[in-house]
Design brief:
The mean pLDDT is 92. The protein has a 16-stranded mixed β-sheet that branches. The chain has a 4-stranded antiparallel β-sheet with strand order 14-13-16-19, with no helix packed on it. Strands 9-10 form a two-stranded antiparallel sheet. The chain folds into 2 domains: 258 residues, Metal-dependent hydrolases (TIM Barrel), CATH 3.20.20; 68 residues, no CATH class. The chain is an alpha+beta fold. It is 19% helix and 36% strand.
Length: 348
Amino acid sequence: MYEYVGAIHIHSTFSDGSGDVKSIAQIADEVGLDYILLTDHNTLRALNEGFEGWYGKTLLLVGCEINDKENKNHYLAFRINKTYSTRLAAFEYVRKIKEEGGIGFIAHPHEKRSSMKEHPPYPWTEWSSEDFTGIEIWNHMSEWMEGLTEENKYNYFMHPLKSIKAPNEQTLRVWDRLNQKRRVVGIGGVDAHAHKVNLLGFFEVEVFAYKVLFKSIRTHILIDKKIEIPKNTRDIQTAKHLIYNALEKGNCFVSNFYHGDASGFRFFAEKGKKVYQMGENIPLGKVSLRVLLPNIFGTIKLLRNGDVIDSLNDFEAKFNIKEKGAYRVEVYLNDNAWIFSNHIRIGL
């Protein structure tokens, strides 16, 4: 499997971000990301104006973040070529996107932030829908704002990466429950806007620079074909298909780069001579789950249907499975949340 590391959920000057699309892509290339997914609010202007393409070794793809008329139910939509009216109910635009061949992920589903009146929470409420591809299980900006207080605000503004601890527990519980019924893919999002904040009333600071947030929550995808950068950097169709296909299938995991580069992590199942990847559903039988860390010891936790059933400190692990369920792995470095795999569904 070939691994590609990227950042998802990014805003530019085409909506409420402070950076232009080309500059954002160039920053991503400097940081060493393989891909980034742009998601401006309710617009595909970057797509329509031809900004999709390769910028150095980084592929920029364009989706959008959709919301309803109450500015709730934010949805990261990809593989689409048109936007949808905010007058539509969330149930409707999620259904339409799926029917038209797109994929989508619920953004910051359990947001409860209250630290800034001008930035209220935008939670997901349309849980009756079953057409969404997945959930953003870890959102940098949501977690940052939910932890912000008067007492810690200067430290939070000066050190935005240190304040990110772990995915929302309620989101993880819902995600585990949904995966007992069907595959629901988990991704990570930076929710990058590169906001400029006035501190002490007389100087402006770009607190959430794109370059900073590109070093936080990342989504790693695994593909069985190598993505080659073509001579024509506007030729993206093959790479675009491979990346979206991997995200749709759940062949991916989420990491916090601030605690370490998770490239090389693997979580897969073995049954007989066959290997199964994250996102797959396999029959119950003589199944082993394997975990490999990138040459570093960590605390590896195996979860079944959301409950921790085994834990060890090592750089690899093997678990023999005898019960059906939705299995995933969490990895911690020095008690810091680092890696969250997608599920391997066994016997479901």
